[in-house]
Amino acid sequence: MFDLIIRDANLPDGRVGIDIGITGDRIAAVDAKIEASAQEEIDATGRLVSPPFVDPHFHMDATLSLGLPRMNRSGTLLEGIALWGELRPTLTREALVERALRYCDLAVSQGLLYIRSHVDTSDPRLVTAEALLEVRDRVAPYIDLQLVAFPQDGYYRSPGAVDALNRALDMGVDIVGGIPHFERTMSDGAASVEALCRIAAERGLPVDMHCDETDDPMSRHIETLAAQTVRFGLQGRVAGSHLTSMHSMDNYYVSKLIPLMAEAEINVIPNPLINIMLQGRHDSYPKRRGLTRVRELMEAGLNVSFGHDCVMDPWYSMGSGDMLEVGHMAIHVAQMAGIEDKRKVFDALTVNSAKTMGLAGYGLEKGCNADLVILQARDPLEALRLKPNRLAVIRRGKVIARTPPRVSELLLEGRPSTVDGSEYAPNIGG
């Protein structure tokens, strides 16, 4: 007897017609046919069942603040930073908590159950850290939330940032962050990378840095981050986020850089929605895309995972909490339209991101946490094409969100009465 059985599921690895048996909060069986009963059964009807989506790069302290104190008229990164600087002194713990909890509600509805959020530590009040530490505790039953101490205005550039970051870590923030390209000089940026990696090594914490989020091909702090990762023995525990300057770098230099990153086992986190929106703003034509070299980094064996970054905040007026929207954009910008390309993109929203975040018990095998999403799509390729409804979201064996199938009523003589977009899947052999 199982507590829950999901019948006739298609899995991301290509297995079809699979039953998943759940006992308590764990997956107890994954077989072609489970000859047993359960207290509850869900018929997936040949639809995709995936582990939950994972967002390894987000700014929950800013989310849903669009329009405060005013709109970003230029739509640029620098105006967004300036707007956030205006808003930050007015932030209250109560408002931050409320917006973050509302976003987490949206995330659950989208099957997004693991999030890593950067927390701006530039305000010495650290109200952002206080608020998101509270949110982390309150959402723990349904979302795993990791927090990064992020000196938004620069570790050395902003007065008091060094002390504030250390205090945030003392309060229980999980990860050391940084923004070397925003320091006043290249040398200050390199020095900040060394100092922050030293802190992480001494405290036994991971590192996740905004790194080279610029079109400047001479912004090369990822090189320093890789070198300091090896120096301090942090291999596999360091993430470089954005890395948009790599889009503009000389190919010969990149041929040296990528192996150095691979040696350091850097986790790479591009943010396709925001990178394509904010980069290349100084170009006329041809206009650079700004997204880092996703295909080349994957081919070199680096762990590449995609982040949502922003939803309705000073930097990005759009967003829906849907990681498939992130993957959909990545396919277009990185020109990853092949069958295997799309599978890699789906992995970058799930298993790769789980690796970046160091998640234990993640996956669809026996013994894994019973965290699952049933999507109104046949397979990962169709999920990325359709961005379908999440028919059921399951956390530790309990259904915590449901969405009805998206089916349109058709009022045309001589034609079918309903249309379900998921039935238009092509026959590509799996």
Automatic annotation (TrEMBL):
Keyword annotations for this protein?
Answer: Hydrolase, Metal-binding, Plasmid
According to the UniProt entry, its GO molecular function terms are: cytosine deaminase activity; isoguanine deaminase activity; metal ion binding
Q: Residue ranges of the Amidohydrolase domain?
A: 40-401
Q: Which NCBIfam families match?
A: PRK07572.1
Keyword Hydrolase found:
yes
Q: Does the keyword Hydrolase apply?
A: yes
Which Enzyme Commission number(s) are listed?
3.5.4.1
- Return the protein name: Cytosine deaminase
Give start-end of the signal peptide.
Answer: none
- The source's superkingdom equals Bacteria
InterPro entries referenced in this protein's UniProt entry, alphabetically: Amidohydro_3 (IPR013108), Metal-dep_hydrolase_composite (IPR011059), Metal_Hydrolase (IPR032466), Metallo-hydrolase_Enzymes (IPR052349)
EC class of this enzyme? hydrolase
GO term, biological process aspect, one: cytosine catabolic process
